[in-house]
């Protein structure tokens, strides 16, 4: 009986040590990993040009962001496909496999929102994610099961150009003409 309790205590302590090591690995670091790979999407996902009324600072989120890993460990990329005038955002949240945490490669469509401070936010399960653009980089935080994680992503490809609105432009031009 005593040996059984000793073995049970060792297994319990081992599990606690492993969990503490995962939490310890999850300390914030700032690095960009160009070789960081997530997934190939089997269905082509189109990034839509911003509609009229979408603030320029919100348009900056559009496009594909990658080349980083949460705490330089778990590869992550984000594909922002549409930004609405009211701040809603359609996106694809992608991760590479990460065996130490038992994470498979994933890609999920999600809906987020850009808040009044310019942060793109969304949640899934117990995870809360937030991104901001700083010096051309997408800086993210992930609060959830593995603690507080950070990532720095770079833009992949070109940012979509806003669609021109010739009707609106001609109305503005005619409004600017003095009456004769």
Which features does this protein show?
alpha+beta; globular; 8-stranded antiparallel beta barrel; 8 strands; 180 residues; 22% helix; disordered N terminus; 37% strand; 3 helices; Lipocalin
Describe this protein's structure:
This protein has 180 residues and is an alpha+beta fold. It has a single domain, classed as Beta Barrel (Lipocalin). The protein is 22% helix and 37% strand. It is built from 3 helices and 8 strands, in the order ααββββββββα. Strands 1-2-3-4-5-6-7-8 form an 8-stranded antiparallel β-barrel. Strand 2 and strand 3 (88-95) form a beta hairpin. The longest helix is centred in the N-terminal third of the chain and has 24 residues, at 2-25. Mean pLDDT is 78; it is low at 1-32 and 166-170.
| Span of the ends, CA to CA | 103 Å
At the fourth level of CATH, the homologous superfamily is Quinohemoprotein amine dehydrogenase alpha subunit, domain 2
Order of helices and strands: HHEEEEEEEEH
Query: In order across it, which strands form the biggest sheet?
Result: 1-2-3-4-5-6-7-8
Number of helices: 3
* Number of beta-strand segments: 8
Oligomer: single chain
% residues in beta strands:
35-45%
Task: Give the SSE layout.
Blueprint: H1 2-25, H2 56-59, E1 63-70, E2 74-83, E3 88-95, E4 106-114, E5 120-124, E6 127-134, E7 137-144, E8 147-156, H3 166-176
Antiparallel strand pairs: 1-2, 1-8, 2-3, 3-4, 4-5, 5-6, 6-7, 7-8
């Amino acid at each position: 009986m005593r040996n059984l309790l000793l073995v049970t205590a060792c297994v319990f302590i081992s599990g606690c040590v492993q969990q503490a090591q995962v939490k310890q690995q999850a300390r914030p670091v700032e690095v960009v990993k160009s070789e960081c790979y997530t997934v190939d999407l089997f269905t082509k996902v189109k990034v839509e040009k911003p509609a009229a009324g979408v603030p320029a600072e919100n348009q900056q989120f559009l496009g594909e962001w990658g080349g980083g890993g949460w705490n330089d460990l778990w590869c992550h990329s984000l594909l922002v496909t549409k930004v609405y005038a009211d701040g809603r955002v359609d996106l694809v949240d992608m991760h590479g496999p990460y065996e130490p945490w038992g994470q498979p490669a994933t890609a999920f469509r999600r809906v987020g929102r850009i808040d009044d401070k310019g942060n793109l936010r969304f949640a899934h399960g117990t995870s809360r994610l937030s991104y901001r653009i700083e010096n051309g980089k997408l800086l993210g935080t992930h609060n959830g099961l593995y603690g507080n994680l950070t990532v720095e992503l770079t833009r992949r490809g070109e940012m979509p150009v806003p669609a021109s609105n010739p009707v609106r432009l001609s109305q503005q031009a005619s409004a600017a003409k003095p009456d004769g």
